[in-house]
Amino acid sequence: MKHMAEKTKIENYKKSETQFEYENKVFLGPLRKMVKDLSGRNRPIVLPKYISFRIQENSKKMFLNIEEQEGIRGTKKVIENATCKNMQTDNAAFEGWAICLKAWLPNIIETVELKWDVPHDIEKNDNKWCHYRRFLYRVLRFSEQYPWFSVSNSNINEVENFKRELHSLQNNNFSKIPDPKGDFDKLSETSVEFLLSSDLSGNMIKEYDLDFIDRQFPVGIKRNKEKFFTSGLSAIDLWGAKNETLTIIELKYIPEGVKSKNIKVGIISELFMYSCIMRDIITGFIIRPDYTPNKNEDRFYDNIKNYSKIRANMLANEYHPLIENKEVIHIFNDYPKDNYSVDVEFKKAKYKLESSKKIHFYED
Fold first, then answer.
1. Is the dihedral of CA 277, 278, 284, 289 positive or negative?
2. Residue 325: is it exposed, middle or buried by C-beta count within 10 angstroms (0-12/13-18/19+)?
3. Which H or E run includes 272?
4. At 275, is the secondary structure helix, strand, or coil?
5. Which distant-in-sequence residues (6+ apart) come within 8 Å of 160 by Cβ?
6. Phi and psi dihedrals of 146, rounded to 5?
7. CA-CA distance, 231 to 131, in Å (whole number)?
8. Which residues on neighbouring strands pair with residue 52, listed in sequence order?
9. Which strand ranges, in their side-by-side order, compose the sheet holding 76-80?
10. CA 166 → CA 70, 123, 278, 290, distances in Å?
């Protein structure tokens, strides 16, 4: 009999009652009202546990502070740090919260500053350390791309030291092409992904103006042949290309009638990081793997010098309510494009998958 993994319980939670009241008054109260006015219904909006939000007095600067928490797993004390977590979780998705709150609350937010507790109890070959490196990469690229976003003075050296580690980077590869998984009679995100890249590929190729579409482009980065970011099955869900344009798609599938934990602002963080990695691959900052088992990956790498544009797409049948504001995509796309040789355009669409496995796309 397999033992269930014990969950971590937070026992000394840092957000004080005063902080909760402040966030409810300044952020959650206005957001819930605006979302209800927009959608006509109450939508659940909760700020993440590990990030504290505050507006600087007499300014329009929002501070995001990612705080370590002391917890307990079973009988063992542990330290939980969201900078070492999966980037799509609410607690780690600083890009998603920065863009969404700036989009919804422009009267009080013009700039955003990020501060975080540096993890101190992880080994450098630990998977948590790979998550942390990926976090620093996201912080670096986000601060480079968006002038309104900055890093706290207390963390600047952490980012500058990380920049010196960014060399000799290489993308990884899967040892074999990922097999489709999931029950196709009872759809899952994986099975929907496979359907979109196979049975319904004609629909996708037409909708996204592609020469081909594929799934699971690996993005686990190595340095000097050793794991640098998380690897394993780290991958872009769907991708394809035509002429000078590479298209990447972050897919979400929420089963109808299911209250899913997968409706996250973190889709913004995922899509942003993938766009940065692909831009770095195209510009040669990250080199190709020594071997790829997929002919479409070979096709991409062989034509890499031809790409000058990336279309980075969110595709979901349901989104977090804060992503439904059209200003979110506007802010996502509003950066100094002249600073980059490869332009990235962020887009968002919804789809509906019928029981007959027909799919309908529509702008959200």
1. positive
2. middle
3. helix 266-282
4. helix
5. none
6. -120, 110
7. 10
8. 65
9. 8-10, 69-73, 76-80
10. 31, 19, 15, 19
Tell me the C-alpha distance between 167 and 222, whole Å. 10
DSSP annotation of 322 reads G
Amino acid at 195: L
Q: How far is CA 296 from the centre of its chain?
A: 24
For the ranges 188-192, 220-224, 299-303, the lowest mean pLDDT is seen at 188-192
How does pLDDT run across 52-106, given as a tens digit for each residue? 999 998 899 999 999 988 777 677 777 888 999 888 888 899 999 999 999 999 9
Distance from C-alpha of 96 to C-alpha of 271, rounded to nearest angstrom: 10
Tokens for 81, please give them. Answer: 């740090």
Read off the pTM: 0.91
**CA–CA distance, 158 with 154 (Å, rounded to integer):** 8
- H helix intervals, 48-126: 94-104
Token representation of residue 16? 């004080």
Contact 43, 59 (CB under 8 A): no
Q: Which residue has the tokens 């397999």?
A: 2
240 beta partners: 213, 247
- Single-letter code of the amino acid located at 32: R
Q: Considering only the C-alpha atoms of the chain, give the largest distance between any 2 of them, rounded to a whole number of Å.
A: 59
* Positive/negative CA dihedral, 14, 19, 21, 26: negative
Of 252, 253, 170, nearest in space to 218 by CA: 170
Q: Which two tokens stand for residue 38?
A: 């927009």
Q: Which residues lie closer than 8 Å to 218 by C-beta, 6 or more apart? A: 171, 172, 173, 174, 231, 234, 235, 289
Could you give the CA distance from residue 355 to residue 271 in angstroms, rounded to a whole number? 28
Per-residue pLDDT reduced to its tens digit, 15-63: 788 999 999 999 999 999 999 998 888 888 999 988 999 999 889 999 9
Contact (CB, 8 A) for 242 and 208: no
Strands (E) located in 90-198: 111-116, 149-151, 169-171
